[in-house]
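Marked as duplicate of an earlier ticket. Keeping the data here for the record.
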Amino acid sequence: MKKLAIGCAVVIVLCMIGFGGVAYYVYYKAHQYMASMQEFAQLDTKITNTASYPPPVNGELTEDQVRRFVSVQETMKTRMGPRLDELSAKQKQFEQMQKSEHRDASLSEVMSAVSSLIGLVKDAKTAQVDALNASHFSLKEYNWVRGQVYAAGGMVFSQINFKDLQDSIKQSGGSTTDLEELSRSVPEKNKALVKPYVEKMKDWMPFAFFGL
C-alpha cells in the first residue's frame, strides 16, 4: 500500500511538472507573440503618409491608385525573393488548419504556428512599409484599394487577423465576407483597370492573406 501511495505521488509530481512545462511554453510563446505585435505596431508608425482617406462614394479606383498598388506588390515580391514561396506555404498551412482538421486549434498549436511564422511576416511587413512610403500610400488608402482590387479581380480570400490570431485560425478570416459583398457591385471601371494584373494577383495572394 505504501509503495502504491509513493507511485501515485510520483505520477502526480510528474503531471505537475508536465503541466508546468506546457504552461511555461504557452506563456513564453504568448510573450513572444505580444512583443511581435508591438513591433508590427511600431512598423506602422513608420508609414509617412498618415492622412485619413474617405473612400469615393462610387467605389471607383483611379489609374494612379492601381499603378501604385501594383508597384507596392511587385516591390514586396522582389524584396521577399524566394521567401515568398515560404510565405505561401505558411498560408496553405493555416488554411489547412482552418478548413480540413474539423476541430479548433489549441492555444499551444496557435503559438507554435506563430513562432515559426512571425519573423517571416515581420520581414514582409517591413518590405510593405517601405513600398507604401515609396508609393505615397497611407495605410487607410492602401487597405481600401487592396479590397477593391481583389474584388475587381474576382478573388475572395481569407485574411489572418494577428490581433486575434486564435479565432482567425479557427475560422475563415474576416475579410472574406466583405470582399464577397464588394464583388456583387464592382464598378466596371475597376474591372477594366485590374484585368491586366489578374494573373499577377495570384502571386500576391499570400500578402493579402497575412493582411499586407
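See parent ticket for discussion. The first helix runs from residue 2 to 44.
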